[in-house]
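Posting for a labmate who doesn't have an account.
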Amino acid sequence: MGSFRVLILTFLMFVFTCAAAAQDAAKYYEENCASCHSIGGGYLAGPDLKDVTKRADRKWLIDFMRDPETKAADPYAAKMIAQAEGVLMPGYPDLTDARAEQLLVYIEQQSGATPAEAAPAMAAFTPAEIAEGRQIFLGAVHLGRGGAACIACHQAAGLPTRGGKLGPDLSRAYDRFGQERGLTAWLKSPPTPVMRSIYHDKQLNESEVRSLVAFFHETQETAEQFNEAPVRAVQLGGIGASLVGALVIGFVFRDRSSGRRRKLTTRRDDQ
């Protein structure tokens, strides 16, 4: 009877340990991975992690999570980096073997889970939301939890003033981070070390996130217009320069051609 009780207690401890590990892995994933990756939901700022353990072995994946730069030359990693427009995910050097294994097990479990219903499409952004997002970015409207204004470290197209250069230009953040869904997740839980340290206890609220996503959606369109305008200007300028060049050449050689015709005519008359 005593051995049976020990067996039951051992089994319960194992169950509770597994449950705690699963909860820990889920929490870690939400805090560090979900802003850039989905599991079966498609590409966000980074690749979909569904069945990722079938695409690469566990040691490779753990090494990549700890220090992505060591694997940057591998064909699989190079493909992911190219898809992310050259952006390399931050490494997690403090990730232990146990935590990494729990994370991979969690991803495997979620990969086999029944897909959740697709989230409803977000409503169209209103002019008021876009304006609010612009003011938040510029720092004219202070964040509810006291976070720093985006412009302190970032720039974006179409603004009346230039921002800082500590962080990347966010003109194309809307597409780069997976549009509404990916960018919303990224703003709620930024995965980069610098952003995590700045907003660790100053997370954006739902309204602030929504307004910033609306602003970045408009900024994306502005950036595309700015890129197309110079191309058109160069094309038109090239055509104009060609026409001017043709006119100049025609004018310069006009007299020469006329002179040659006069000489030929004179020779024929003399003959």
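Reply:
Got it, the structure tokens are right above this. The chain has a mean pLDDT of 76.
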